Amino acid sequence: MKEFLLAFIGSFTGAILFNIERYNLFWAGLCGGFAWIIYKALFEYSSRGIYATFLAAIFVGLYSEIMARRLKTPAYVFSIPGMYPLVPGIMAFDTITLLVFGKLEKGINKGIETAATAGAIAFGILLASNIYQILDKLICENFKSETKK
């Protein structure tokens, strides 16, 4: 519960920085809180950070698209603050620290892991958004064709 609340606050305050409307702040915070819970649960289950980040990012993408339709606002209003808890900031810090102190092999490995985690976030949100839009278009076309009959 504590981690959910902290992730919620992080996403909520990040949404404030982007000057998001007040009635969307709660929903943006909720996106980040749930994304963090999904990440933690999957990480504890599989011990694979990139995999857990990817699936949590898929959740962020789907949540963003659904809430964008319901609240009639752009999806990025929810996806950008929602991914804040997933961003590998401490991993990037560790990468630079290792490189500065001359531990090149460990630093390069950590850098690759950091880049892969960032890529998993981007690809997860992109994949979820595209799949949602394709399914939405197919459902709308099927609905239109059935109503013409």
Automatic annotation (TrEMBL):
Membrane topology: Multi-pass membrane protein
Superkingdom: Bacteria
Cellular component per GO, a single term: plasma membrane
First-listed, main subcellular location of the protein, grouped into a coarse class: membrane
One Pfam family cited in the UniProt record for this chain: ThrE_2
Domain Threonine/Serine exporter ThrE, chain residue ranges per copy: 4-129
Signal listed as a keyword: no
Transmembrane feature ranges: 25-43, 50-71, 83-102, 114-135
Keywords recorded for this protein, A-Z: Cell inner membrane, Cell membrane, Membrane, Transmembrane, Transmembrane helix
Family statement drawn from the similarity comment of this UniProt entry: Belongs to the ThrE exporter (TC 2.A.79) family.
Name recorded for this polypeptide: Threonine/Serine exporter ThrE domain-containing protein
Upper classification of the organism: Bacteria, Bacillati, Bacillota, Clostridia, Eubacteriales
